[in-house]
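Handoff note, outgoing to incoming analyst
You'll be picking up this chain. Sequence as last confirmed:
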Amino acid sequence: MTSLRKLGTSDLEVFPLSLGGNVFGWTADEAQSFAVLDAYAAAGGNFVDTADSYSAWVEGNSGGESETIIGRWLKARGNREDVVIATKVSQHPEFQGLTAANIKAAADASLRRLGTDHIDLYYTHFDKPEVPVEEIIGALDELVRAGKVRHIAASNISAERLEKSLAFSEREGLARYVALQPHYNLVSRDTYEGELQDLAERTGLAAVPYFSLASGFLTGKYREGEVVEGARAAGAGKHLETERGRAVLAALDDIAEAHRVPVATIALAWLAAQPTVAAPIASARVAEQLPALLRVAEVTLTDAEVERLTQASA
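Most recent structure output, in case you need it:
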């Protein structure tokens, strides 16, 4: 069995790959989603990431589709206690923002969709600087005290606002963020490295990076002269036009060959080797895409390999 990783200062222990639920109800229907979730759980996976707004951007959807599918799966499999469920607040069309009233109403709506009485890890999805951190933390603390949320976390937040939030929690003895979900991968490092990463390291926060595979670019399927169809192809393909993108792919190819694993596995392994990172997030539309992601739990890069990728992506 793969050893689980402790999530920051919390009592949560998570698989070293978090399964992204953004595709459930979007590019994966319910049957495909169940198959992906089943395969992930069968491999020892226990850390599922979603948000109340997934996938409101799809025509005909209203938000909450991903949570609803995950909730149905948990009920069908009877495995709620074996799974760490992370979801987020602030972007659902009916529950916009981070006022105290909205946070509480959105949490109740998420709990209903997930068919559970508690959320293991509850993120502020996008920080709203117009709302005082005192109001946000106060509302999150109430959810923790009510037993509706076990731990709280932040995503898409500035180092300054994160530091203020942590200081307020400490000062008032309230629930404190245990994790951070930054945009971070081999072709997007300045979105996390620097102030945010330093703060996370200093305060014991675990990082759970999203866009770990740069919308598919770091799977290696985007190559010169090849056409890739898909919902995210245009954005991911742009990296091929940069010197850094090409250098990263070349390094990934060599290291993947040495380990005899797919390119995606190595891109995730580099993230997993970074300070503060507990588990990168990656999603699979069909179960066949999972093995390359799951193998991050078995692959450990040498210091030289980590350094080569770090240099290529500089």
